[in-house]
Amino acid sequence: MKRIELLQQLMNHMKQRKSVYLFVSILFLMGIIFGAFLVNSISLTQRHDLFLHLSQFFHEMNNGHIEATANELFVNSIVHYSKYIGLLWILGISMIGLPIIFILLFMKGIVIGFTVGFLVNQMGAQGFVIAFVTVFPQNIILIPVFIAVGCLSVRFCIRLFKHTFMKGIHEPIFPHFLSYTVTIVCLLAVTFIAALFESYVAPSLLKWTLSLF
């Protein structure tokens, strides 16, 4: 019953803010598409150098020469996601952070699109399989989280701007700030699931996939 109520609240929340969610989602998708096409815009020499580094990494991974432990990878992932989401949160509470939020979301989309695009461009079907088992699973969680955090940051930034500069708005800002912060922390906690996959499952899947080739 609680799950149904929670789902209904979530749907109502998204319906009331559908324009923001739609804009941020399209922006993120555009970043992914741009990142995929960006692969073809870099020179052959740059692609060759990147592929050499990638091939060396795959070789070391397949032969067990990667020294980083799963715990170290997990901590690194959590630190990375915390910094990214924390930066979006900080930008949300600053009235000048709105364009930077959009840029960060677009750049995150570019990174994902470029990663998948480069693997497919250089390795064909093998690259697609590698991307499918090591990039797609965690991003099923991460992309909605990043979009949600981006939308919340945009909404709070706009609310703060209106509260500061528009006359006739006397609603206290602190309850909204508290709700905004708690929700961001909850979304950050969700990234722990993606970090667990990246650290404890993805390396094994990658090694198994490389052994097939």
From TrEMBL:
<feature type="transmembrane region" description="Helical">
    <location>
        <begin position="20"/>
        <end position="42"/>
    </location>
</feature>
<feature type="transmembrane region" description="Helical">
    <location>
        <begin position="84"/>
        <end position="107"/>
    </location>
</feature>
<dbReference type="Pfam" id="PF01944">
    <property type="entry name" value="SpoIIM"/>
</dbReference>
<keyword id="KW-1133">Transmembrane helix</keyword>
<dbReference type="GO" id="GO:0030435">
    <property type="term" value="P:sporulation resulting in formation of a cellular spore"/>
</dbReference>
<protein>
    <recommendedName>
        <fullName>Stage II sporulation protein M</fullName>
    </recommendedName>
</protein>
<comment type="function">
    <text>Required for complete septum migration and engulfment of the forespore compartment during sporulation. Required for stabilizing and recruiting of SpoIIP to the septal membrane.</text>
</comment>
<feature type="transmembrane region" description="Helical">
    <location>
        <begin position="141"/>
        <end position="161"/>
    </location>
</feature>
<feature type="transmembrane region" description="Helical">
    <location>
        <begin position="114"/>
        <end position="135"/>
    </location>
</feature>
<dbReference type="InterPro" id="IPR002798">
    <property type="entry name" value="SpoIIM-like"/>
</dbReference>
<keyword id="KW-0812">Transmembrane</keyword>
<feature type="transmembrane region" description="Helical">
    <location>
        <begin position="173"/>
        <end position="197"/>
    </location>
</feature>
<dbReference type="GO" id="GO:0005886">
    <property type="term" value="C:plasma membrane"/>
</dbReference>
<comment type="subunit">
    <text>Component of the MPD complex composed of SpoIIM, SpoIIP and SpoIID.</text>
</comment>
<keyword id="KW-0472">Membrane</keyword>
<dbReference type="InterPro" id="IPR014196">
    <property type="entry name" value="SpoIIM"/>
</dbReference>
<keyword id="KW-0749">Sporulation</keyword>
<keyword id="KW-1003">Cell membrane</keyword>
